[in-house]
Write a structure and sequence with these properties.
The chain has 110 residues and is mainly alpha-helical. The protein is 76% helix and 0% strand. The chain has six helices and no strands. The chain starts with 7 loop residues before the first helix and ends with a helix. 11% of the residues are buried. The model has no long low-confidence stretch (mean pLDDT 79).
Length: 110
């Protein structure tokens, strides 16, 4: 789309979206330092990735490495054993991310 065809509202929306994408991580770290939100957990992302790769019948060790997979498995086991609300939410998020996306399951059902 050419620049002349964009409305002012579209330009503003694009700038806001770009600023939000760029500033999301630094703002989250700043708020975590202040104690307002929980600190980002890098192992949680790896746990979701490991669960997703296993659902695709791929070996996560080849993709992420043995250390990352071991840490993710230990995190998932500890979260399931803790039994608190946050751990159940984490486990549910990891399980949900392992499911195929809707368009893939619709194709398989046909």
């Amino acid at each position: 789309m050419c620049a002349n065809c964009l409305t002012q509202a579209e330009v503003v929306a694009g700038h806001v979206a770009l600023a939000a994408a760029v500033l999301k991580a630094p703002v989250h770290r700043f708020l975590a330092d202040l104690g307002v939100v929980a600190a980002p957990d890098p192992v949680a992302r790896d746990a979701r990735t490991v669960a997703f790769l296993r659902r695709l019948d791929l070996d996560p060790v080849e993709i992420l490495g043995a250390d990352a997979v071991a840490d993710a498995d230990a995190w998932a086991t500890a979260a399931a054993a803790a039994g608190d609300g946050q751990a159940r939410r984490r486990a549910a998020t990891a399980a949900a991310s392992a499911r195929p996306i809707g368009s893939q399951s619709l194709i398989a059902a046909q």
